[in-house]
Specification:
single chain; 691 residues; alpha+beta; Rossmann fold; eight-stranded mixed sheet; seven-stranded antiparallel sheet; 35% strand; globular
Length: 691
């Protein structure tokens, strides 16, 4: 089969009196957002090319089919297919979720307290039947337990349609509401609910209230955000006294509130937005509680009396080089999180005495702790705490914060068998190009030799302040058990070491993200975890931007790259302010259209614009036609240009899912198939298909 070739149509683009040529600009249709909702509007020529790429990839990986099947079977065998979550006790019912061996989607169940009869009020497999793609947004029962409101995306484009039905007879009771963001918030009196409508750019900037029994054309606008960079949503307070409207972009936020007893629904502002200041709000025990970075780079927690909203007091003050995380309030306790030296921790505070101590769940150093409520009634001392690590499946305990007694109530079961003692987890620090220490989490099988002979997969992300926690994964074992070391580079652009760590990896510091990753790669090679030419880079979305920039800069270090829904035409996207995410990311990547310095900087690293005539490693690129976060045309153009320029004979494979979104195909089996496909590529290039 011939290598697919995309038609070139040179187009001269210009900005800030700087001209450049784009041979594949024509792939980006003017009605691109319509294409995401309806694939039939895709240009026939582009559809033909995508199908050719899919066929070419299928043929090139035809010898991996047995391995894909083997990987699928072993990954699925590690999943307890018939499983149920721990129940959550509401006022009148216990609620929990269930998955079955036969199904691909979860079911939601409930049982009236004091009654043994179990009711399935939501069945994802039934809802998904006949759909090529299925994603549930919110699935929310009304406070009176009678109605179910839910939202569905059946394309992958994240345009959600809201439905309401009566639980007792399963009959739809309201008009459907299309083109929403998916979130649903019931009013406290159950006479209405709130939702966010998507604008023509796929941005949720309006909040409406729908009164049951009325036409959706009469839905009232409650709040509207006028800044294109900001998007909004609505939620409720822990004490069920207020509604909170939050509007934000990545670095700035603003919160409005109104009392549940108000009839006019006139939101009042808490603190006016100030560039770079983030805050969120809750209400409990007669206080408003705020989590904010105002005058506290790594956040702090404040509170004020409901009746004295201008008199805030520090409750958990800021700490040097410690990221103060979120919190949950009980009648007598606060449970909150911190991140110190890239390690997450939990703390329990007595609200009466203000005495506080760290909650030690495990003797392991590298863990991800968690906490959840067991019931709606917060007049309790008993909560659920949990932890996992790269070698320890999730363990959940019932924990009495007063007596400090804990009881194991659920442990992630690996049906095919698992021995955590066979695996080793290490946290090391790499010194980057400018002296900054970059954490790396390394997981490998105890039999893997650390003499440079092993292949190593290095995962990275490094954007939006997103922190990668040291979690357990049943899928990674398929590589680790084949002596491929799994490492995660906690590079700048994330918040592993606080807000400054994020700031040092964004805007005009974005190249630190890429340099950190390259430094981590060289460090792992120098420390004999692997060798030059044995490393596989792995990243998706903004992590795909990372892979693209790195492979242009240092291709010789890598055996291969796996780039999922990669943000690789970052300059073109940044210049187009009509795209869903662009305006909201001006404080993450810059504004190339309005700022010459930003333009030059983004252009200097944009993967598509920096492809060189040189040898590249093996590369697998995956995308989805309905993805509205990273449009399919970005990796399409990147692949076509890379085919033109690269001087090697290594694999360059491109797969576009024609019925999926940013997260890939829907359903449990399909998700496993996606992982097996990626891993089979990794095993092919490492010559481990027979392992």
């Amino acid at each position: 089969m011939n290598i697919p070739k995309l038609r070139k149509e040179p187009t001269v683009k210009s900005c800030h009196n700087i001209d450049w040529e784009d041979d594949y600009s024509w792939v980006h249709q003017e009605n691109i957002l319509d294409v995401l909702k309806d694939g039939s509007k895709l240009l026939p020529e582009v559809k033909k090319y995508l199908n050719e790429e899919n066929e070419y990839t299928k043929k090139q990986l035809s010898n991996t089919k047995p391995m894909q099947k083997k990987l699928f079977d072993e990954i699925k065998a590690r999943i307890k297919l018939d499983d149920e979550s721990l129940p959550y006790k509401d006022k009148n019912y216990e609620y929990w979720t269930k998955v079955t061996k036969e199904g691909n989607y979860s079911k939601k169940l409930r049982r009236r307290i004091g009654n043994d009869k179990i009711e399935t009020y939501w069945d994802g497999d039934v809802e998904a039947k006949g759909k090529k793609f299925f994603s549930a947004g919110d699935v929310v029962v009304s406070h009176n337990d009678e109605l179910l409101a839910y939202s569905v995306d059946d394309k992958g484009s994240e345009y959600f349609t809201i439905f309401v039905r009566k639980i007792s007879d399963n009959k739809i009771t309201e008009e459907t509401i299309p083109d929403t963001a998916g979130g649903i918030t019931w009013s406290y009196d159950d006479k209405s609910f709130f939702y966010s409508k998507l604008d023509k750019f796929h941005r949720p900037r309006q909040i409406f209230i729908h009164i049951l029994g009325t036409s959706i054309s009469d839905d009232r606008l409650v709040f509207e955000e006028n800044d294109d960079r900001f998007t909004c949503g609505i939620g409720t307070s822990s004490d069920q006294q207020f509604y909170f409207i939050s509007t934000s972009e990545h670095t700035t936020s603003e919160v409005y509130y109104f009392n549940k007893r108000e009839e006019k629904l006139e939101p009042k502002i808490i603190l006016k937005r100030k560039e770079g200041i983030e805050y969120s709000l809750d209400s409990w025990g007669g206080y408003f509680w705020m989590h904010t970075n105002q005058d506290a780079k790594d956040f702090k927690i404040l509170r004020c009396k409901h009746e004295d909203i201008n008199n805030w007091e520090d409750y958990i003050p800021a700490k040097e080089e410690v990221l103060i995380g979120g919190f949950v309030l009980l009648n007598n306790w606060m449970v909150r999180s911190e991140r110190v030296d890239a390690i997450p921790k939990l703390f329990i505070r007595d609200l009466k005495t203000n005495m506080e101590e760290e909650l030690k769940i495990s003797d392991e150093e590298i863990i991800s702790p968690g906490m959840s409520l067991m019931q709606k009634d917060r007049n309790t001392d008993v909560i659920r705490i949990s932890y996992e690590s790269p070698k320890t499946p999730t363990r959940t305990y019932e924990y009495n914060v007063a007596t400090k007694e804990k009881k194991l109530v659920k442990e992630l079961e690996i049906p095919s068998g698992y021995n955590r003692d066979e695996y080793i987890v290490k946290r090391v620090n790499c010194v980057s190009h400018d002296g900054r220490k970059i954490p790396i989490t390394i997981t490998y099988h105890k039999d893997t030799k650390l003499d440079g002979s092993a292949n190593l997969l290095l995962y990275g992300y490094g954007s939006y302040g997103h922190t990668i926690s040291p979690s357990f994964s049943t899928t990674r074992l398929s590589l680790i058990n084949r002596n491929i070391i799994w490492a995660t580079a906690h590079i700048r652009g994330g918040m592993e070491r606080g807000m400054k760590f994020w700031e040092e990896g964004k805007m005009l510091n974005k190249k630190n993200t890429f340099k950190d990753y390259i430094s981590c790669t060289k460090f792992l090679i120098n420390q004999k975890y692997t060798s030059k030419g044995k490393v596989i880079g792995y990243g998706g979305s903004a992590g795909g931007l990372l892979m693209g920039a790195v492979v242009n800069e240092a291709p010789q270090l890598f055996l291969g790259m796996i780039m999922a829904v990669p943000f690789v035409d970052s300059l073109t996207t940044n210049l187009d302010h009509s795209l869903p995410l662009t305006a909201g990311e001006f404080n993450e990547f810059g504004n190339a259209k309005e700022n010459l310095e930003h333009f030059k900087y983004i252009k200097s690293y944009s993967p598509y614009h920096n492809i060189k005539k040189m040898d590249y490693p093996h590369i697998l690129i995956t995308t989805s036609l309905s993805d509205n976060r990273v449009l399919f045309d970005e990796p399409t153009k990147f692949t076509a240009k890379l085919r033109e320029e690269k001087t090697d004979n290594n694999l360059l494979l491109f797969k576009c899912e024609m019925d999926a979104g940013h997260g890939g195909k829907s359903g449990r089996d399909a998700a496993i198939e996606d992982v097996a496909f990626d891993y089979a590529f990794a095993l092919k290039i490492t010559d481990k298909l027979d392992s």
